[in-house]
Structure formats: C-alpha cells, structure tokens
C-alpha cells in the first residue's frame, strides 16, 4: 500500500507526465471473500454503494483497477469488469491461466513470466551436484505446472526426486497436520528440499512445516515465500538459511526516503498505518478522538527492523509501482490524442473512458525510473531474471536477505547461473550440503543401475581390462585404442611401447647364444668328420649323407636367428621357407641314411639282389625329391598368401608386439604336416631297422633322434597355440634349436665319442674280431 501511495505521489510531482492532472485512488479490502470482491468492484465502477450496476449522477472517475497478489481475486473480478471493458491490472506473480485462450482480454499482468524458475532451480542443483532432492508443491494450476516443468528439467539433467508432495491450500486440511507427516518420514532421505509457493496459504504452510522442526535441511523456494513476523527461534528455525529465487528488479530511488518521512498524520484515513505506528513506537491513544499520542521521538518507518518492515520494495510492490506508471502513461497518451482532436478551453472538456485505454495499454512500452523496460503485451513478455537470496535470522529477529547469486535465462547456457564463491551456510551445516542417493563413482569406475530404483541410485563397478573412465559418474567405460592401454587405476589410456623379440632382450640373448654355440659345435663336428673321413665309423652309412646332414643342421641353427630381431618383409618370408626347406633336407637325409642301413644289411645277406640299389646311390635321391615337394608347397604359399609384418596389441599389457603373420594358415600347416609326415616315416623305418646286426649300425641312434625330433614338435603345437607375442616366437625358436640339437646329439655324439675317446675301436678289423669272438661265445 505504501508503494502504491508513493508511486501516485511521484507521478503527481512529475511535470512531464500528466501535467496539471492529479491521480487519485481508493482502496478496498476483499478479506478473501468472493462476495466482498464483487461488492468492492461494483462500488469502484459505479461510484456508489446502494444500487449495484446503476449510476446516478454521472460516471465514476475510476479508470483502472489494481487487484491483489492472489490470482483468485483477479479471476473473481475479471468476468464482471470484462462486461464493461474496464482495465484491470494484476500485480501478483505471473499466472499463465489468466493469459490463456483470451478469456480476460481486459486483464493485464504486471509480473514478468517466471516459467524459467524451474530451469534456474535445476541449474542450482547442477552447480552443487545435488541429484537427490525433495519437492514440495502447493496445490493449484501454477503448482502443478511448476512440478511438470521441474520434473522435465530434472530428467534432462539426470536429477531424481526422492519424493514429491503436493500440499492442499484448503483450510480444512490445515486443521490436521497429517499431510505434513512426510517431513518426519522422508526428509531424512535428502539434504535439500525445493519448496514452491503460490500466493495463497503461505503463512499456514510455513506454520505447519515449522512445527516439525526440520533441521540440517537446505530449503530452496520462490519469491512468494516470506518469513513470519515474529522471527524467533533463530537457531531452531526450520527456514533459517533458506535460499530464495526472488524476482530481480532495480532499487527505486526515493522510496526509502519516502518511508522516512511518512507519518500517520499525513494519511489519516489509513487505519493500517496508524495500527503499525501504534504497535511499533509504543504510542498511546487519546480518549477523546483516538489520536496517537506519546510516540517515540523522531519515529520513522525506516527505523523499524526488517522483521517488521522491509525497506526495499517486494515483488508485489514493484509490480504495483509499474502498474500505476502503466496506467499513467496510457492515460497521458489518451489525453494527448484528445487534445489533438478537440482543443480544450479553460481546462474543461476532458473525458476519460476506461475502455479507451485498452488499445494503449496493450502496446504500452516505457522505461521505469529504475531503468527497467516494461511491456504489458503478454506475447512479448520476457522471462524474468532471478536474484538468489539467502535468508538469515541471526541474531534473533534479524530477517536479513543477502544476495548470493543470480540466474538469467537470457544469456547462453553455462553462464546463466552465477553464485558467490563464499556462501556461508547454516551453523548446523558446516560445508556445502551433499544431497545424493549414491556417492559419485570415481574415475576408473562406471555406474551400474540398481534394480527397481531411480537412475540416481547406482553401484560403482570397476572398468573391464582395456577400458577406462576418466570422469566421475560415467555410465559406460571407454575402450582404449589399440595403440594404448589402460593404467592400473583404469582412468587413463597410456601409449603402448613397440616391442619384439630383440637381440638385446635377455630371452633374445639366450636364444642367440644357444643358436651360435650349436652352430659352432656342428661345424666342429663336420670338421672332425672331414678330418677322419677315411675311418670306418665315418665311412659307415654313407659319409656324404653325414656331411649333408651336418651342413643342413648348421643351417637349422642359423635359421633360428631369422626369428630374432626387428621383423621385416624379407625376414618374415625367409623365416618360414628356410625353416620348412632346411628341416625337410634334415629329415629326408635321416630317412636316406636309414634306408642306406637297411640296404647295406640286405646286400650282405646271402641270395639278395639289391646290391645295384646301394651301388647306384638310390637312397641319395630321396633328399632332392622330398625337398622339391617342400619347395613346391612353399612356392604355392608365397604365391597365394605369404607371411607379412603384423602387430599384436593385445598379448602383453602396455606393449605392441611386432610379429610376422603366417599369412595363409592352411599353407603353414601343410608345410608342417608334410614335414611331420616325413619325420614319422623316417622314425618308422629307423625303428624297424634298429636291431639289424651290422658293424657301426646307427639305426638305433637314428630311431632315438627321430623320437626326440617328433616329441619336440608334437609338444610344440599345443604350446605354440597357447602363447602369444614374443613368447610364441621364442617357443618356435626353442623348438627349432631343441629338435636340431636332438638330431645332432643322438646321431653324432656316439660317433664323436669313438673318434675322440675310443680310436682303437675305429677300424674294421678290430670290429670284426669283436663280432667274431661274440659269436664263438654264443655258440
């Protein structure tokens, strides 16, 4: 009411707005009664009290009606005033219902749109990482619309409502506190509750919530909330420290000075001002005429604490201020048009018809003294900017509202909410409240939904091997690229190092040294055989085959070096072809030696006619024939799908292994299969000839050597397939060395023993004497 009077007096002092014309006013108290509302509207419109809807003695001088903060008042008065096209300006919070479907074209809402309130509150939740909150809404169309907007915005931002409660504004409900039992049951689940008020029933709701004494809860509400007038129980007050989304408006200059000079004597008809003065400044009443006496000296409303009277304009007061100015600007424009059409003489002839103001009010635009733009067009109204206030009631009765931030829907996303870096929370809440259903999943973990619970309630599961989560609360882990691997914490991908079976590695050094040692040893044996080439033990079983076998074994040991070092296209091809061909020569040579033993025995037996096979050197043809078959298989392999350089990023943690891909596995296994078949034939023939009685018969040694050879490669296959990376290559090298060493040791170690340590046995006559003495003893 004081803001209303202040605005009218300010306009009347303005020489540019409505010059030489004074605005008057009258006020009516509806007392929340529909009958009183209609009665007051009729009085305002007709200018008389007795006969409704009938004018006697001329028109009323009223040009507009300002209705209260309750939408119910506007809804009651609007249908009646609509009959007369009488302008009505509502200064309560913006209500979409009043602007829908053109029901009330003569009704104008001064408040800006507050539909961005839900977005602002959700932005606050996001800022403080609150994803588990409670919602308390007052019943009504605006409350239900706000609930819908809130749940929609919360769903977009993955914020959950632990509970939501709609409170009825019916006075019958307030007779019992049962609707507020949720304050005991459910507030323990959350640390933050968002409370939305419509205008009606604020005091009653505050009262019943306050009775339950809910502490250590942060309440967030809209500008319709206001504290009780007593302001007691500053520590045990439920709403101490509440955050308020208040409509932003600039301070109106001159209003505080107006409050300082206003006196009851200046407005004798205002009984509410007299009552406030009487109760606030310890005045007394004279018995004769009930005039205030003995008040505190220099009493002023500006001296009252905030719990008695806030010096700043409230939202409703600011809307009243703009509403009066809107009517004044429209009236000024209408009078200017009348003066242009019909000049007035002696200040008479001006007629104001309220219905004529509509065309002007719909398009009225002006800037207030506070510098804000006002527009009554409901289609062009902007969403309001919100100030975020924190309510303090310490010390007792302070009722201080401190601005801690603001929210503006007109700026880009991410910049809409600004908050003070240092927000002082309630004394019972030492730090920023933490309202979540489940603590955040740290990097390295992903969220696993809990069955039957909202998305904000989840378990944290560690990422699988090779996957990371580098942010908190990730729904899914991210797989590292092939050239990277996940660290132990599973929160970062690390670049893999490139590796291969290098000569510098310990394993590479061991295999290389072993291969070179066996190569040198084989060359030494070959030299020894060449030196003693004319001795019976060297000449036995075809010394040329022994030379071929030793030479091919040397190549076997050396070919293992192709598997060590940085692979390239040439080494990848040579690895398999050299291995296949050289080992084929070795095995076919063993087969040729075994057949030579068999033929030699058959030739010495009476009545045999196989001498020509032995003399002609037929067993020696086995080697080129078998080798040619293997060369053909290798040629087909190289021509269709040869080996190539490949990378193995999965065998070893943190390493990319450069390996030689076999290319065609079918061709690879054909080469191995052919080699295995040849070895099996050699073993079988040697096994059958192991007991032939002949001097220097090496069939037993050939049998044992092939047994070792076959055992190595039979063992190699399953082990080879069960290993990966460098170990697989090392296993292949080891098998080559082991099988080659087995042949070298089993075949040539006994002969070297005789040559070096038993030279007396290395001649044919001695051997025959021994055989002859054995036969005599047998007989």
TrEMBL record:
**Localization (cell):** Cell membrane
Q: Which GO molecular-function terms appear in the entry?
A: G protein-coupled receptor activity
Pfam families for the chain: 7tm_3, ANF_receptor, NCD3G
Q: What is this protein called?
A: Vomeronasal type-2 receptor 116-like
Q: Which PROSITE patterns match?
A: G_PROTEIN_RECEP_F3_4 (PS50259)
For the keyword Cell membrane, the answer is yes
The membrane-topology field of this record reads: Multi-pass membrane protein
């Amino acid at each position: 009411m004081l803001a209303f009077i202040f605005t009218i007096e300010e306009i009347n002092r303005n020489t540019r707005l409505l010059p030489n014309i004074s605005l008057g006013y009258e006020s009516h108290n509806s007392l929340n009664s529909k009958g009183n509302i209609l009665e007051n509207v009729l009085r305002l419109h007709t200018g008389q009290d007795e006969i409704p809807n009938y004018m006697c003695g001329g028109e009323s001088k009223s040009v507009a009606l300002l209705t209260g903060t309750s939408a119910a008042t506007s809804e009651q008065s609007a249908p009646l005033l609509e009959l007369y096209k009488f302008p009505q300006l509502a200064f309560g919070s913006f209500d979409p219902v009043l602007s829908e479907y053109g029901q009330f074209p003569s009704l104008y809402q001064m408040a800006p749109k507050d539909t961005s309130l839900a977005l602002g509150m959700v932005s606050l939740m996001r800022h403080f990482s609150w994803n588990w909150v409670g919602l308390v809404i007052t019943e009504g169309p605006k409350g239900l619309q706000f609930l819908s907007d809130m749940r929609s915005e919360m769903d977009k931002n993955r914020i959950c409502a632990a509970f939501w409660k709609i409170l009825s504004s019916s006075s019958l409900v307030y007779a019992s506190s049962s609707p507020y039992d949720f304050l005991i049951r459910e507030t323990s689940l959350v640390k933050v509750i968002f409370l939305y008020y419509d205008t009606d029933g604020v005091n009653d709701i505050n009262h019943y919530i306050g009775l339950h004494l809910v502490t250590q809860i942060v309440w967030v509400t809209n500008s319709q909330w206001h504290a009780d007038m007593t302001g007691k129980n500053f520590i045990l007050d439920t709403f101490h420290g509440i955050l308020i989304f208040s409509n932003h408006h600039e301070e109106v200059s001159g209003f505080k000075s107006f409050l300082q000079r206003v006196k009851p004597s200046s407005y004798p008809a205002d009984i509410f001002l007299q009552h406030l003065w009487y109760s606030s400044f310890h005045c007394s009443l004279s018995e004769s005429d009930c005039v205030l006496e003995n008040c505190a000296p220099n009493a002023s409303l500006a001296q009252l604490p905030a719990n008695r009277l806030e010096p700043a304009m409230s939202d409703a007061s600011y809307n009243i201020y703009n509403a009066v100015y809107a009517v004044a600007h429209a009236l000024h424009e209408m009078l200017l048009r009348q003066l242009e059409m019909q000049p007035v003489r002696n200040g008479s002839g001006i007629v104001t018809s309220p219905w004529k103001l509509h065309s002007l009010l719909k398009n009225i635009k002006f800037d207030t003294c506070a510098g804000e733009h006002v527009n009554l067009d409901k289609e062009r109204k902007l969403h309001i900017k919100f100030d975020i206030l924190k309510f303090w009631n310490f010390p007792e009765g302070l009722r201080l509202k401190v601005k801690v931030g603001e929210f503006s829907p007109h700026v880009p996303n991410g910049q809409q909410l600004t908050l003070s870096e240092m927000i002082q929370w309630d004394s019972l809440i030492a730090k920023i409240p933490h309202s979540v259903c489940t603590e955040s999943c740290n990097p390295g973990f992903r969220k696993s939904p809990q069955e039957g619970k909202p998305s904000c309630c989840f378990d944290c599961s560690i990422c699988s091997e090779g996957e990371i989560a580098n942010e908190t609360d990730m729904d899914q882990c991210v797989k590292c690229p092939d050239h990277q691997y996940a660290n132990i914490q599973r929160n970062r991908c690390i670049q893999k190092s490139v590796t291969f079976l290098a000569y510098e590695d310990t394993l590479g050094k061991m295999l290389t040294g072993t291969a070179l040692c066996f190569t040198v040893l084989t060359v030494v044996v070959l030299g020894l055989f060449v030196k003693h080439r004319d001795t019976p033990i060297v000449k036995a079983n075809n010394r040329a085959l022994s030379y071929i076998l030793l030479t091919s074994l040397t190549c076997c040991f050396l070919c293992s070096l192709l598997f060590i070092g940085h692979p390239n296209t040439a080494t990848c091809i040579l690895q398999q072809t050299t291995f296949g061909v050289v080992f084929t020569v070795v095995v076919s040579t063993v087969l040729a030696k075994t057949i030579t033993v068999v033929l030699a025995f058959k030739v010495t037996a009476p009545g045999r006619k196989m001498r020509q096979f032995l003399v002609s050197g037929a067993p020696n043809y086995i080697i080129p024939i078998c080798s040619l078959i293997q060369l053909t298989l290798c040629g087909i392999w190289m021509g269709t799908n040869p080996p190539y350089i490949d990378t193995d990023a999965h065998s070893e943690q943190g390493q990319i292994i450069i390996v030689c891909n076999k290319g065609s596995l079918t061709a690879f296994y054909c080469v191995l299969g052919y080699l295995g078949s040849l070895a099996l034939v050699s073993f079988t023939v040697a096994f059958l000839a192991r007991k032939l009685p002949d001097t220097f018969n090496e069939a037993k040694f050939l049998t044992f050597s092939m047994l070792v050879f076959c055992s190595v490669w039979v063992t190699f296959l399953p082990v080879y397939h069960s290993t990966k990376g460098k170990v697989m290559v090392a296993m292949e090298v080891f098998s080559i060395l082991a099988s080659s060493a087995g042949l070298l040791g089993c075949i040539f170690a006994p002969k070297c023993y005789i040559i070096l340590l038993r030279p007396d046995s290395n001649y044919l006559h001695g051997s025959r004497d021994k055989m002859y003495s054995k036969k005599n003893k047998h007989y």
